[in-house]
């Protein structure tokens, strides 16, 4: 497939989704019972999709590598979920949410998909309230809202600092209801290792039972990937250690295009790295930027004394503090988008104003909010986040500023999908963070939860029916078909190859080396020389990994190191594609910052003449260069302008 057909409906932007729903095919209740759907992943996107499809009457098999669906990484989301309800009467609207998302993504996302996301967002809140999600409320009982980066209105609904957990519990309860009803069968501790394609259509998966090592076959009329992003390619990230890109990568190797892999998000409010043996990073919610002020010392000598431990933050007077986000971006201040805030923090630290011993931190200070609102109010808003920070750092953030620094957080790139959320492989869908569709080159805070639930509850259940309406005469998928046998042999052969290397170094040794390469050359800033070097070094690391990795334990049993080795093998290949994509995109946009393309005041400089596209990479075979196709992005409803948050 060389032609990119995004299947965007005709008609005015605000009418595309309603017209599309009216035109697409539906499946009768009796026929739904004949159809099987596999959903891989049980985070917000996967759990909501599986529950919705089960409620509709399809036979659903849901898979997760965790021991329970409620352990999906969505549970870690803290700050909130966006929706265009305009409860604050501050002039929010569907169009404003659409425009903020397009602008926040630096004009590198599809208009039609983003507008649909904004359209369905109010329904998400109603759905979650009906499920009992305990959103924060105002004194009078109305749902409360707060602001997030990149917007000038308050549209973010939240449950203190544990919004993801509460939303996932809501989706989990809906999923459990369908499991009890028999419409959904759950396969916990099962990891998908291949997609089975028969006559050009996705017809099932091959998965490994992580409790005993058994490789199994599962057939279905359609397969849905809801497996999150690939941020752990950097080793250190805010993602859970088990998060990986393997499911999407195996789909890519079966013909699904991979889109915009170079777009990864650097989150500005992470607890800084504190040791060489650290295995992951901890995120402090972006919601803290509502009331916390970001600053570094104005004087380098004060920064140097801080790094040496000679003074504390509270010893520096207000007039000697540089509130650099407020200074540079007076309109948005501390609530500029994540990519802007992250680069600004790095610039201050690189200039010698970093405040921790390594010089890789800035302050996030609540002194002023406590003086203005009182400690009780701040504790009600952020108490669990403050408690988490103190447990990790042994610093009381009510009395001392937090220290934060940017870190890898979210993958805007992912599996290419059309308007129906179908990949370039018919019958294979991708939803939530696993696809590329809604966030462009930078995701606005509180939009990940919105997309996951929008896809699972309100978009996929409609669009997948259009495809399955043509499959109702297809019998149950025969897992004894040659394609299943071939896929199982590929999976087993790869596992055996990894296990039998018997090298000298553990998996984490190679993962850390990959992380250093990625952060150094494909991290917060990139240039042509560095990206070419990254491609060379990743190729060398790949050879070393496949010749010298050591995997202890038994192959056909519980073996976390074997799991990690398979995921790292995919991360190495994903890292290579990320570097190629970044090298090919000779402009700066959102989270992709090319040093060759910068404005006079140091901001990302787009080049719409060459960069107004979504890349769609096609697999050509092992150790062969992939081919990039382009989906041209057409903007009919917003004007392409250089982003400014000043």
Overview of this protein structure:
This protein is α+β, with helices and mostly antiparallel strands. The protein folds into 3 domains: about 15-265 and about 410-470, FAD/NAD(P)-binding domain, CATH 3.50.50.60; about 265-410, Succinate dehydrogenase/fumarate reductase flavoprotein, catalytic domain (Flavocytochrome C3, Chain A, domain 1), CATH 3.90.700; about 480-610, Methane Monooxygenase Hydroxylase, Chain G, domain 1. Helix content is about 40%, strand content about 15%. The model has no long low-confidence stretch (mean pLDDT about 95).
Features:
flavoprotein; Flavocytochrome C3, Chain A, domain 1; FAD/NAD(P)-binding domain; 18 helices; 3 domains; Fum_R/Succ_DH_flav-like_C_sf; alpha+beta; 646 residues; 5-stranded antiparallel beta sheet
Write the layout of secondary structure elements.
Elements: H1 16-23, H2 29-32, E1 36-40, H3 44-56, E2 59-64, E3 81-82, H4 94-104, H5 111-130, E4 156-157, H6 163-181, E5 184-188, E6 190-198, E7 201-209, E8 215-219, E9 222-225, H7 246-253, E10 258-259, E11 264-270, E12 293-297, H8 300-308, E13 321-322, H9 324-328, H10 338-353, E14 362-365, H11 367-373, H12 375-393, E15 402-411, E16 414-415, E17 428-430, H13 448-468, H14 482-499, H15 507-521, H16 528-548, H17 560-584, H18 608-611, E18 613-618, E19 627-632
Parallel strand pairs: 1-2, 1-9, 2-5, 9-17
Antiparallel strand pairs: 3-4, 6-7, 7-8, 10-16, 10-18, 11-15, 12-13, 12-14, 14-15, 18-19
> Quick one: how many beta strands?
19
Query: What is the percent of helical residues?
Result: 25-40%
Q: How are the strands of the biggest sheet laid out side by side?
A: 5-2-1-9-17
- % residues in beta strands: 5-15%
Can you tell me the CATH topology of the largest domain? FAD/NAD(P)-binding domain
Q: Major beta sheet, specifics? A: 5 strands, parallel
CATH level-four homologous superfamily name of the largest domain: FAD/NAD(P)-binding domain
Give the overall average pLDDT: 96
Tell me, briefly, the overall form: globular
Q: What is the CATH C level class of the largest domain, in words?
A: Alpha Beta
Number of domains: 3
Structural class estimated from helices and strands: alpha+beta
As residue ranges, the low-confidence spans are none
Q: Architecture of the largest domain, CATH level 2? A: 3-Layer(bba) Sandwich
**Terminus-to-terminus distance:** 43 Å
Rounded to the nearest angstrom, the radius of gyration is 24 Å
Query: Number of DSSP helices?
Result: 18
């Amino acid at each position: 497939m060389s032609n990119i057909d995004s299947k965007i409906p005709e008609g005015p932007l605000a009418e595309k989704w309603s017209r599309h729903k009216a035109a697409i095919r539906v499946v009768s209740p009796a026929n739904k019972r004949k159809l099987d759907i596999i959903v891989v992943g049980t985070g917000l996107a996967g759990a909501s999709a599986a529950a919705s499809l089960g409620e509709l009457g399809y036979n659903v098999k849901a898979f997760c590598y965790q021991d329970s669906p409620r352990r999906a990484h969505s549970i870690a989301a803290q700050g909130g979920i966006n929706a265009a309800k305009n409860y604050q009467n501050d002039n929010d609207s569907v169009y404003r949410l659409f425009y903020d998302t397009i602008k926040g993504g630096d004009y590198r996302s599809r208009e039609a998909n983003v507008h649909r996301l904004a359209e369905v967002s109010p329904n998400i809140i109603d759905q979650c309230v009906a499920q009992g999600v305990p959103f924060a409320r105002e004194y009078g009982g109305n749902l409360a809202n707060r602001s997030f980066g990149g917007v000038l209105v308050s549209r973010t609904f939240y449950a203190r600092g544990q919004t993801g957990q509460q939303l996932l519990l809501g989706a989990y309860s809906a999923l459990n209801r369908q499991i009890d009803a028999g419409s959904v069968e759950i396969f916990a501790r099962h990891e998908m290792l291949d997609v089975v394609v028969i006559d050009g259509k996705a017809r099932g998966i091959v998965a490994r039972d992580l409790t005993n090592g058994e490789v199994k076959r599962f057939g279905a009329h359609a397969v849905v990937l809801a497996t999150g992003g690939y941020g752990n390619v950097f080793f250190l990230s805010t993602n859970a250690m088990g998060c990986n890109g393997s499911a999407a990568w195996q789909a890519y190797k079966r013909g699904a295009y991979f889109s915009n892999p170079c777009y990864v998000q650097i989150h500005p409010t992470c607890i800084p790295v504190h040791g060489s043996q650290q295995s992951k990073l901890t995120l402090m919610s972006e919601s803290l930027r509502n009331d916390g002020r970001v600053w570094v010392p104005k004087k380098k000598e004060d920064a140097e004394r801080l790094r040496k431990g000679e003074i504390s933050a509270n010893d520096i007077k207000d007039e000697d503090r540089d509130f650099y986000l407020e200074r540079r971006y007076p309109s948005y201040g501390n609530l500029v988008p994540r990519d802007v805030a992250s680069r600004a923090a790095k610039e201050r630290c690189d200039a010698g104003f970093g405040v921790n011993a390594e010089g890789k931190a800035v302050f996030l200070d609540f002194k002023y909010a406590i003086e203005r609102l009182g400690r009780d109010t701040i504790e009600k808003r952020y108490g669990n986040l403050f408690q988490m920070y103190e447990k990790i750092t042994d610093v009381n953030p009510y009395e001392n500023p937090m220290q934060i620094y940017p870190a890898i957080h979210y993958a805007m790139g992912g599996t290419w999908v059309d308007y129906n959320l179908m990949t370039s492989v018919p019958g294979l869908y991708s939803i939530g963070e696993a696809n590329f569709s809604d966030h462009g080159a930078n995701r606005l805070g509180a939009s990940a939860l919105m997309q996951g639930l929008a896809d699972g509850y309100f978009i996929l259940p409609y669009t997948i029916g259009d495809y399955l309406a043509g499959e109702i005469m297809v019998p149950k998928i025969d897992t004894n078909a040659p394609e299943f046998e071939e896929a199982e042999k590929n999976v087993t052969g790869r596992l055996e190859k990894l296990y039998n290397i018997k090298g000298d170094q553990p998996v984490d040794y190679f993962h850390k080396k990959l992380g250093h390469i990625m952060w150094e050359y494909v991290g917060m800033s990139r240039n042509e020389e560095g990206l070419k070097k990254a491609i060379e070094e990743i190729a060398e690391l790949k050879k070393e990994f496949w010749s010298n990795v050591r995997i202890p334990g038994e192959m056909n049993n519980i073996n976390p190191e074997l799991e990690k080795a398979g995921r790292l093998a995919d991360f190495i290949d994903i890292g290579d594609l990320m570097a190629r994509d970044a090298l090919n995109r000779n402009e700066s946009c959102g989270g992709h910052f090319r040093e060759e393309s910068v404005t006079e005041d140091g901001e990302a400089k787009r080049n719409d003449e060459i960069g107004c596209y979504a890349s769609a990479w096609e697999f050509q075979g092992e150790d062969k260069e992939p081919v990039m196709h382009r989906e041209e992005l057409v903007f009919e409803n917003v004007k392409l302008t250089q982003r400014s948050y000043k």
